[in-house]
Every structure is written in C-alpha cells, then in structure tokens.
Design a protein that fits this description.
Elements (H helix, E strand, L loop, with lengths): L16 H5 L4 E7 L2 E7 L3 E6 L4 E9 L4 E11 L14 E7 L5 E8 L6 E7 L4
C-alpha cells in the first residue's frame, strides 16, 4: 500500500513550481492492478483507503521541497476485514518525487527504506475535491 505501482520511467518537466504546490493537499486516487486506492492529503498526513477491503492507513507527510515529499507510516485507521499487512509496515519510510506534473495527474517516483525497488505510480486528481 502507498501509492507505488511500477510504470515506465519517463522524464518530466519540473519547471512549473505552482503546479507542484497544487498537489500538496486534496483528494486523489490511483490503481494497482484490480485494486483502487483513494488518497486524502492534508499538510501533515496522507490517508490511503483501499476500496475493496475498507482498509484506511495514515502516513505522516513532510515536504523536502516543492516536488519531493517523505511519507512514514503513522497508523491504521480502519481495517474491518482484518486485511493482513506486511510485518514491517510500521517501519516503512517512502521518499516520493513528483514528475510529469499536469493539472489532472502526476507520476510519483518513489523509493523506500525497506528495499531497492524504484516504483512509479500515476496519481490522479479526483474530479470533485
């Protein structure tokens, strides 16, 4: 969980800082195969809701600059189906870089402290915030 699917790596134009700032808070979504996640992002937290399971997880979020943020596991807010999570989720810290930023989506490039995998996820703005 946490906004990271593998997609093709692409270079994005990161010159429009105002475009980045528009993504700091709001409601977004992404898909990972058959699973759909909803994101609610505030200035301090990102909550991710897995629609199919009813699982709601909170991450703290700290912005290093306009296009890079670090997320760290905070808590499980809801888990009605007792979905089994990775044993080390409490330790996860993910560094994310926004690339290919547009008004309706961006590609998140992320790495975490638990493995060497670079993930790419398309984050899409919800039509209604």
């Amino acid at each position: 969980m946490s906004a990271c699917n593998q997609v093709d790596e692409k270079q994005g134009d990161n010159s429009n800082l105002e475009s980045f700032r528009e993504w700091r808070v709001g409601n977004f979504h992404y898909s990972d195969g058959a699973f759909k996640y909803l994101i609610h992002r505030t200035s301090a937290y990102q909550e991710e809701f897995l629609l199919q399971e009813g699982l709601l997880v909170r991450f703290s979020i700290n912005w290093e600059n306009d296009s890079v943020y670090v997320m760290q596991f905070d808590s499980i807010l809801s888990n009605p189906n007792q979905t089994e999570l990775a044993f080390d989720i409490n330790q996860i810290q993910k560094t994310c870089t926004m690339t290919e930023v547009t008004s309706h989506s961006y590609v998140e490039r992320s790495v975490n402290n638990l493995n060497d995998i670079i993930d790419y996820t398309q984050i899409i703005r919800n039509q209604r915030d």
